[in-house]
Design brief:
The protein is α/β, with parallel strands linked by helices.
Length: about 575
């Protein structure tokens, strides 16, 4: 027995046949009926390519129209009858899919039909439309909500190294109570990628316990947008919750879960978290959340009712070996997109450079950025293969740190020789080369001390800053006013870590401040204003009035320059 929508489409197809003067209802008439409704993945996919109902109808009338023929009796062709029957069967198998999507998919599965021959006249790739149609699957009621996006049909990516966390995610979703996993990890460690991989494995039938389940990502900004008046937001939110209640096989995913606290709240109204908490407690919907550790402590922990609804899953940053396997799994994807070749031996170089020059990012995200940008660099410069030059140029661009150390050392020595001819070049060359060694050290770049006439010391540091570090000047921290300058210095170091930090009047500072500074230098990082500022790429230079260094400082300083008159010399 035909559904109401099937009957309506058949009646519309008969009207199209009568208009064209045909005495039959064929696949072309069903296509026109579908396009006339302007619903479903096929109609929208054609519209995206500039192909609309009136255009197709006009061309169909020219090709197949028989105006002088009587159309009192219409016969349904065998192909049309098959299409309707297959559509009915597909709807029974996928009750969550709309009738229009089912009809579009059935039409596309018969490439030799008259309807598809008609579409080929517009240079339409039927295979792409077929794939796009399948990606429009899911649950029709949830697909219709603008704030939701189904992850099951996203392009599948290479995914490795998270099998244990993926298994734990599935186990939590299958719980009778508190079936709501919360992924907690630093930005860039792969929280969203883990959820996307879970959705795609469900769709591929690899997780039998979650068969026919769909994961929908919620866009909080889209949900809040347009809610100008009191009650608008509550109405949209209740509609979304009701849709999930009606479909127990749907799982909600909220990235940046902390944003739901206060989202949409106005005077006298409620926020997303307030609505979610009772639904999660009663298992009226299942939700996967993701947030960083800092945001979890700042927001989620302070809302015990929300915290109890979730079970935490910690995602740690993968080590370089794990990151290497992740990049190897994604190489083919990036190479195919950029149409370049990526040598496998370049992957360790990308990871090592990302680890050393990009200390504030996290694996695997920052390594994937280097891989993607290296391919883009090769493509932009008409190279068929990504080489080490591409990687180094990308690293220099991302970190604002020049990678070619040998050239910088040579140029710096030439300038210093011209302007300060009495410098001990051999010792200075050794000291500069130590700054450029790729030791992947976790602490500071180097620590020097300069003793002598202050004007000469500053002149030497200025030349070094300009030629070796490519900076206009060095960064100065006066220990006499340490508390007042510390915030500004940390901000500048955070923005430009590759520089010289010149510390003045260290001996005159309070013992407590000296200990605090030396402890930070030994650890290779300052803490201030809620963030860590690394000294991994910073040359720390102490300007000393006296030639002798105190015991605690002498153990830290690697090179001590004493400038006497116009002839500086290197002491150890």
């Amino acid at each position: 027995m035909m559904s109401l929508k099937q009957k309506a489409m058949l009646e519309r197809a008969k009207m199209e046949a009568q208009r064209m003067g045909n005495d039959y209802v064929g696949s072309e008439h069903l296509l026109l009926a579908l396009l006339h409704q302007n619903e479903g993945c096929l109609a929208k996919g054609l519209a995206a390519q500039g192909i609309y109902y009136f255009q197709v109808r006009s061309d169909a009338e020219i090709l197949f129209g028989m105006k002088e023929q009587s159309t009192q009796q219409l016969q349904i062709t065998a192909i049309a009858d098959t299409l309707l029957a297959q559509c009915e069967q597909l709807q029974q198998e996928r009750p969550q899919q709309s009738f229009e999507d089912c009809m579009g998919e059935v039409l596309l599965s018969h490439p030799s039909s008259v309807a598809m021959e008609l579409l080929r006249r517009y240079d339409v790739c039927l295979e792409e439309l077929h794939v796009a149609g399948k990606k429009r699957g899911g649950i029709a009621a949830l697909n219709a909500l603008e704030a939701l996006h189904c992850l099951n049909f996203a392009t599948r990516q290479g995914f490795v190294e998270r099998e244990e966390q993926l298994e734990l995610l599935v186990e939590i979703l299958l719980r009778r109570e508190k079936a709501n996993p919360l992924l907690v990890g630093e930005a860039g460690v792969g929280k969203s990628a883990l959820v996307e991989a879970l959705a795609q494995r469900i769709e591929a039938g690899e997780i039998a316990a979650l068969k026919d389940h769909y994961i929908y990502a919620l866009d909080i900004n889209t949900l809040v947008a347009g809610t100008r008046y009191r009650g608008d937001f509550e109405e949209k939110l209740k509609k979304l919750i009701a849709a999930f209640r009606s479909h127990p096989n749907a799982i909600l995913f909220i990235d940046e879960l902390h944003q739901v606290i206060g989202a949409g709240r106005s005077e006298g109204s409620i926020d997303v978290a307030s609505v979610l908490k009772p639904c999660l407690a009663r298992r009226q919907l299942r939700c996967i959340g993701a947030t960083t550790l800092a945001e979890y402590e700042r927001h989620i922990e302070k809302d015990p009712a929300l915290q109890r609804r979730f079970q935490c899953v910690r995602l740690m940053e993968p080590d370089p070996q794990q990151t290497r396997r992740i990049l190897m799994a994604r190489c083919e994807e990036y190479a195919g997109f950029h149409q370049v070749e990526i040598a496998g031996e370049l992957i360790p170089t990308m990871i090592a450079c990302a680890d050393y020059y990009l200390p504030f990012g996290h694996f695997p995200d920052k390594a994937l950025d280097v891989l993607d940008l290296s391919c883009a660099y090769a493509r932009a410069h008409a190279q068929d293969k990504v080489d080490e030059t591409c990687v180094r140029e990308v690293i220099a661009s991302l970190s604002q740190i020049p990678v070619d150390v040998e050239q910088r050392t040579r140029q710096t020595l030439e300038v210093l020789t011209q302007r300060c001819p009495d410098l001990p070049l051999r010792q200075l060359t050794k000291a500069l080369q130590e700054l450029g060694e790729h030791r992947r050290q976790k602490t500071l770049l180097g620590c020097w001390a300069l003793s002598g006439e202050p004007r000469q010391c500053r002149h030497m540091l200025q030349l070094l800053a300009e030629e070796f570090f490519h900076q206009e000047d060095c960064l100065t921290l006066d220990m006499n006013v340490y508390p007042f300058l510390c915030g500004e210095v940390l901000q500048r170091l955070y923005r430009q870590p590759y520089t010289i930090l010149c510390i003045e009047h260290f001996d005159d500072a309070l013992e407590e401040l000296r200990s605090l500074l030396l402890r930070a230098i030994r650890k290779g990082a300052f803490w201030g204003e809620g963030r860590q500022v690394s000294l991994r790429h910073t040359l720390v230079v102490f300007l000393q009035d006296s030639e002798d260094l105190c015991g605690e400082l002498s153990a830290l300083v690697g090179s001590h320059f004493q400038l006497e008159g116009s002839a500086p010399c290197l002491l150890s």
